[in-house]
Amino acid sequence: MVSKARGYVDADIEFDQKGNIKQVRIVKSEPQNPAFEKAVLDVTKLWLFNAVLTKDCVPVDSTGNVRTWFEVRDGKGVVSVSGNVSAASSPANSVPRKSDWENRKDFALSLKYPTNALRGRVQTDLLAAIRVDAASGVPSDVVVTWIETSGNATPTVVEEIKTAVARSLKRARFTPRAGEAYRVCVPFNFRVS
């Protein structure tokens, strides 16, 4: 950091449906400082954003804006960051927090990755939308809304993965709460080592 220098840099960031950075563009630098701009461009390449979800629980490419402040406090460089993401996701389709699950550990243990997927070394990222009865916390209407695979993912293996996830999610239990039924999006990431 330049001695005694302070300022901020605003950057627009485009990212894909998995949260990977596609493009970063500096939109403002006050005062203009090439060293600060370069620092922002260098660090944002390392970032990963949370997926932005449509109301149907499908991840989409999106954009965000990040402001990075640079200042000197007590003789040391200090960097602060804040930002926001485009409002494509619906609050009705939130990803459940750990505290929302009543049996998260039991649920995770009940999930069996299909043998054919393991044999084919299929790695999978997917999202499933489920309707949850608010009063009981019991899920229904499990639908895999998005799936991306690598490895030997035949159509049969993909269906086996979807079936395993749906079967397991029907065993999940969420903390009961007041109100009407609601939808949540549950992400899954399967890695074969």
Structural summary, described in words:
With 193 residues, this protein is of the alpha+beta class. Helices cover 20% and strands 40% of the residues. The chain is built from four helices and ten strands; from the N terminus they run ββαβββββααββαβ. The strands form three sheets. It has a four-stranded antiparallel sheet, with helices on one face. It has a four-stranded mixed sheet with strand order 7-10-8-9, with helices on one face. The longest helix is centred in the C-terminal third of the chain and has 15 residues. The protein is elongated. The relative contact order is 0.17.
**pLDDT averaged over residues:** 86
**Proportion of strand residues:** 35-45%
Strand order of the largest sheet: 2-1-5-6
Q: What distance lies between the first and last C-alpha atoms, to the nearest angstrom?
A: 41 Å
Radius of gyration, rounded? 21 Å
Can you summarize the main beta sheet? 4 strands, antiparallel
Q: Classify the helix fraction into a percent range.
A: 10-25%
Question: Structural class of the secondary elements?
Answer: alpha+beta
The SSE order reads EEHEEEEEHHEEHE
Tell me the total number of β-strands: 10
Detail the poorly predicted runs.
88-92
Distinct helical segment count: 4
* Net shape: elongated
Describe the structure in brief.
The protein is of the alpha+beta class. It has helices at 34-44, 104-110, 115-119, 155-169, and strands at residues 7-15, 21-30, 52-53, 59-60, 62-73, 76-85, 93-94, 123-132, 139-150, 182-190.
